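TODO from last week: model AMP-dependent synthetase/ligase domain-containing protein.
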Amino acid sequence: MATGFAHYLDSKLLLSLDLEKLPLLKAQFIAKDHARRHILLCDLMEQSADQWPQKSFLESPQTKYTFQQADLFMNQVAHWGLSINLKSGDIVALLMRNRPEYILLWLGLGKIGVVTAFINIRLKKPGLLQSFRVIQPSILIIDTEIADTMLERIDTSFSGPIHTFSPPSSPSDHTSNSLHGMPTTRPNRSIRSGITTSDTALLIFTSGTTGLPKATRVTHFQSLLRGIRFHLFMQVNAFDRIFTCLPLYHTAGGVLTPILAILSGAAIIIFPGFSSDIWTHIRSTKSTILQYIGEMCCYLMDASPSLLDAENQLRAAFGNGLPRRIWSEFQSRYRIPIIYEFYGSTESPIGLLNRCASSLEQGHLGRRGMLDVAFSGTRLLRYDFQQNSLFRHPITGAYQSCHVDEIGELVVLLHPSNMCRRFEGYYNDPNASQLKLLHNVFLPGDMYFRTGDLFRVDRKHCWHFIDRIGDTFRWKGENVSTAFVREILTSFSDFREICVYGVEIPCVSGKCCMIAVVLHPHRDTIDIDALSVFRNSIDVDI
């Protein structure tokens, strides 16, 4: 009888699903304990270097660092920063290709309290100008291998000091020419003694769901909490080798993966970028975990099948945006036992994570129990697609929660006193920060974070991502801001009105940019020659 009652209770409350997510709850307690003891990200790295000194930490086709070698390099970075009078709270803009030193630079600068801003190296002049205008960096650090290209794009958009960084000359040489003569001893921790885990560690650009790209404040606590969640849920350990070719200027590749390795002792295999022979490198590096985005999986599925597809040592893959239409075939073709599909954004205080080891778990972001939903503060609010805004009762003005299988916007209840449920806001952009907040939603004084993303929960309690709200969309792993594209096109004299939007293409992940225009009355057709000249003059990819 007791067994029957327990089964009935679980069918109503889905407590068994909550038990599966206990590691995520445990992560909050661990992260808060680190916060209480004021342990920063660079402190964790020092602890790992002491625990696994000879263990491989970062590898690339060019070089390899053990945890100890990485820490020594970071110490040199910190002393170099002090030698050029960088101080706690200063902002350094980093423009560098995928390489181990990218991670070591921002961690090393963190040892003296400097905030590193990740800059997308694919940006052209207008995008760079927008980025520098927002963050107002003290200096720029540019990879020497891309210095000529980047300096040409930067031109006069930045007038401060620019430092080029020379990578180590050989795999066995871990001293960059730029750091020659700098001490390898750890800088005195008193230099960063005034910094807490609530302080900004990084600035990472995101388009959010509206407007131009914005710099998100990423705190030490946020990064640590996310890393611990994945570490515990995925059971990452010191024997794992994590393969990533994602851009390090994004949160997933440049922050989440390094924190995972620092916490677990795992090694990171950093590849310059995605290529058609990526599976060869996954095999040759004996990688056990693959980091992906949906577009990668689509390209891999487009490749001609090979008998070697299933020949690998992968035990798991983790990432986001894996299309439902290829999920089953991708997992079976490349023989990946477990896929961890997650949802999240750099600025959001909430994330969803699904452990997929069978066909029943494919194609969604996991099932969530009642306690998980309640304690996370997540709600789906009804959305008025005619008005393109959240639905509100015509008489009371109240917001309303979605029913089963109804599409709505995901919102998260914020608690300023709870570090796990904060929205840190966008740097130097209070107006954009306020647009992400909803007040007095269900109770007077309550405040919710708007994700700007549409979801649906089906009758099996599976959560499905549907689409983004607003004027941004994803294409080839990057956020496209329609506002930014429209702003660039307004300077072409033939166009009177411009509408920019994303359209889906069969068998392609993300959305492609489509532009509809109304010409000025004096124009019957577009002057193609003039448009070509305009395209070559704007120095921006659209």
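Done. The mean pLDDT is 88.
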